[in-house]
UniProtKB/TrEMBL annotation, chain B:
Tagged with keyword Calcium: no
Protein's recorded name: LutB/LldF family L-lactate oxidation iron-sulfur protein
Domain LUD positions: 73-298
Annotated Pfam families: Fer4_8 (PF13183), LUD_dom (PF02589), LutB_C (PF11870)
Domain 4Fe-4S ferredoxin-type: 315-384
Alphabetical UniProt keywords: 4Fe-4S, Electron transport, Iron, Iron-sulfur, Metal-binding, Repeat, Transport
Ranges of residues in domain Lactate utilization protein B C-terminal: 393-483
Region Disordered, annotated ranges: 451-492
Domain of life from the UniProt record: Bacteria
Length: 251, 492
């Protein structure tokens, strides 16, 4: 299977460890991964801030880069939801504006074959035990676009429960938004910070060492709040936990 | 009600104070979390909830699509049943009609059933100017009115108040409006309720005119429906000689059968009850029972303009249950007042900028008062995709475009104050359609990382005021990939 890694612009720039973890994990499971270097950004920040017309060329570029792969895997619930949920909507809007089917047609091929990482593991590869080892106490925060957009459900938890050495503790108020919300974090900084602080307090109350999620942009906000509040916890992307083994353990 | 929303600052500014008010945060957290949990249980009991939700959505969409036809049918039914129908294009016209109708009775006071439509048009203030006193009889509305406050929730307008504050308001203000609070009033719920009961009873027995809204209007029979918990609404609907109901035109359902869906979904979504204690229905006037005169004022006030927008019109499906407020993490921290409207929370953030337009600072900021977490859409009993409409309205703010105002198509210009953001979005689009430019930027960031400040100046403070910046790695992923997986670099 020709699988492409869509790492996302945020991960590429700020969280290369997550990208390396996805490659290592998928290789270990026998999947050959390509990283098409022409990839950039899915356009989510533009679209969600109201700049749909600026997002359109980015979506077209995404489709040009990825359309020939059999599967596109991304370690981000929100970027995955952008492609799966919002690309079709962008096509519909263009049609409703009398601009014909060109955008919808251009974007259609990538929509059904884009998978968030845990979906790809559980639904496409059919594995929940990925042979990982991670001897730490972990609590899991389901990020909103993964939870309510893609409907990831129990998939990430099933994967985490199968990790050797990992003790999973429940996060109180898990399904509440952490307050990141893309440009919301800047435009409504006070409310965003209050939501972040509540999320961090809930996480700290579990006594876990690690807060795990499937989206680094949310973890950037939660992690930045954690160090500011000096909780001693650390944010870790689920890919890094699943990639960790006894031979090569991750922190 | 003497509080007003006119001249409100933008949402982020209005929310700032609430976020740092620990009492308010505590009141809101307690109230929203309690009702949130109860709603979940009440909804989980219904095995066909998803079907009911879909049915409610379809009934509303069908009615809105044929609103012209159903409105005329309703007018005929109400008239045939002995009522009089008035049409109000906007708030001013509705207020003038109600004022005239009250004056024609020769009365100078009215008792009110809890009603969002009359709050929306500022009816109490308009009546006050004409020397007519309007008494709110819903317990929470009474608290708000006595406290010279503004409502902060659709269903529980005094949600921002705790028992101690309510006791204070009753003890201090009741004597100004009528029967004073009993001596030695404490903050136990039973005593507070009894104080309100005694205070209100006097008004019910004296009032000759009642003013209400309605949750539903049944086109086939001309029947209006009010659902409530306290029975105070029932008093106002049955005791006065004249009843005036002000109702938004989107509140129609075609038939009684359609009520079957909403009378299940509304109470469970709003108060988390299987059935609300009082459901009052009335059809015109009935000889020797209830009001002798019934007037229905049908209110547009921006609804037809909203209906013209194919993405935004779904907001008109709203049945005012307030489940979206109770589940919203932003509402929980910012409180209802920050939304600058009688419609707070997620539904307010999509209704107000449509009913009022996006010209004012507060209305232009409301579409951004959300992290787009989607919890509101998930709980909405008529499946309004609130995040979709929020993003649509953000487009309207920053890109402008065609909208309908007072029935005319007009082209909005992009809002001012977004110039820097617009330039940044364009620059990002430019870089993101050129992988080489993105890589150059990433390398620059990585190579200068030792010099990155921990805190940012200017607009960057919005991030670093409360959060540390993530460290920039020594190399971006794509450079690692190139080093380890080789191959030709297509981005050169």
């Amino acid at each position: 299977m020709r699988v492409a890694l869509f790492l996302t612009c945020v991960n590429d720039t700020l969280y290369p460890d997550t990208g390396r973890a996805v490659v290592k994990l998928l290789n270990r499971l026998g999947v050959e991964v390509d990283f098409p270097v022409a990839q950039t950004c899915c356009g989510q920040a533009h679209y969600n801030t109201g700049y749909r017309y600026e997002a359109e060329p980015l979506a077209r570029h995404f489709s040009d880069v990825f359309r020939d792969y059999e599967a596109i895997v991304t370690p981000s619930g929100s970027c995955g939801a952008m492609v799966r949920e919002l690309y079709p909507r962008m096509g519909e809007r263009a049609r409703a504006e009398g601009r014909g089917d060109t955008l919808a047609t251009a974007l259609a091929p990538v929509v059904p074959k884009t998978y968030e990482l845990t979906e790809f593991l559980v639904d496409v590869l059919g594995v929940t035990d990925v042979g990982a080892y991670y001897p730490h106490t972990v609590t899991y925060h389901p990020t909103c676009h993964g939870l309510r957009g893609l409907g990831l459900g129990e998939r990430p938890l099933r994967l985490l429960r199968a990790v050797k050495g990992l003790e999973l503790v429940e996060l109180p108020g898990a399904e509440e938004c952490c307050g990141f919300g893309g440009t919301f974090a800047l435009k409504n900084a006070d409310v965003s910070a209050a939501m972040g602080a509540d999320k961090v307090r809930n996480a700290a109350s579990t006594g876990a060492e690690v807060l795990c999620a499937a989206d680094n942009s949310c973890l950037m906000h939660i992690g930045g709040t954690m160090t500011r509040l000096r909780t001693g916890m650390r944010p870790v992307h689920i890919a890094q936990i699943l990639a960790s083994t006894e031979e090569e353990p991750a922190a | 009600m003497s509080g007003t929303f006119v001249g409100m600052p933008a949402f982020p500014e209005a929310a700032r104070e609430a976020v740092h008010d620990q009492t308010l945060r505590g009141n809101l957290r307690h109230a929203t979390h309690t009702i949130r949990a109860k709603r979940r249980t009440a909804v989980a009991e219904v095995s066909d909830w998803a079907e009911l939700r879909e049915a409610g959505k379809r009934i509303k969409d069908h009615t809105l699509r044929h609103l012209d036809r159903y409105l005329v049918q309703l007018e005929e039914s109400v008239t045939a049943a002995g009522g009089t129908v008035h049409w109000a294009a906007d708030a001013g016209e509705a207020n003038r009609i109600v004022t005239r109708l009250v004056k024609e009775t020769g009365e100078s006071e009215v008792v009110k059933v809890k009603s969002m439509a009359t709050q929306e048009i500022g009816l109490n203030e308009a009546l006050e100017e004409e020397g007519i006193r309007a008494y709110e009889t819903d317990l929470a509305e009474l608290i708000v009115q006595l406290g010279k406050d503004r409502p902060s929730h659709i269903l529980v307008p005094a949600i921002h108040r705790n028992r101690g504050e309510i006791r204070e308001i009753f003890a201090r203000e009741m004597s100004e409006w009528g029967r004073p609070a009993p001596e030695g009033l404490t903050d136990t719920p039973a005593e507070l309720a009894e104080a309100a009961r005694l205070h209100l009873r006097e008004k019910f027995l004296r009032a000759k005119v009642g003013v209400s809204g309605a949750n539903f209007m049944v086109a086939e029979t001309g029947t209006l429906v009010v659902v409530e918990s306290e029975g105070n609404g029932r008093m106002c609907l049955t005791l006065p000689e004249t009843l005036i109901s002000v109702v938004g035109i989107e509140k129609i359902v075609p038939t009684w059968r359609d009520l079957e869906v909403f009378l299940q979904t509304l109470p469970r979504s709003s108060t988390a009850e299987r059935m609300n204690p009082y459901t009052s229905t009335w059809t015109g006037t009935t000889d020797e029972d209830g009001p002798r005169n019934f007037h229905l004022v049908l209110l547009d006030n921006g609804r037809t303009d909203t209906l013209a927008d194919e993405v935004g019109r779904q907001a008109l499906r709203c049945i005012r249950c307030s489940a979206c407020l109770n589940v919203c993490p932003v509402y929980e921290r910012a409180g209802g007042h920050a939304y600058g409207s009688v419609y707070p929370g997620p539904i307010g953030a999509i209704l107000s900028p449509q009913l009022r337009g996006t010209a004012s600072e507060i209305d232009a900021s409301l579409p951004y008062a959300s992290s787009l977490c989607g919890a509101c859409y998930e709980v909405c009993p008529v499946a309004i995709d609130i995040p979709e409409v929020l993003v649509h309205l953000r487009e309207r703010v920053v890109q402008g475009g065609q909208v309908t105002r007072e029935g005319n198509k007009v082209v909005l210009r992009p809002a001012k104050g977004h110039a820097a953001e617009r330039a940044a979005m364009r620059a990002a689009r430019w870089a993101f359609t050129r992988p080489g430019a993105l890589r150059t930027g990433q390398r620059l960031a990585s190579r200068t990382r030792r010099f990155h400040p921990r805190t940012l100046p200017g607009p960057g403070r919005a991030w670093t005021g409360t959060r540390d910046l993530p460290p920039v790695p020594a190399e971006p992923f794509r450079d690692w990939w190139h080093r380890t997986h080789g191959g030709k670099d297509e981005t050169k």
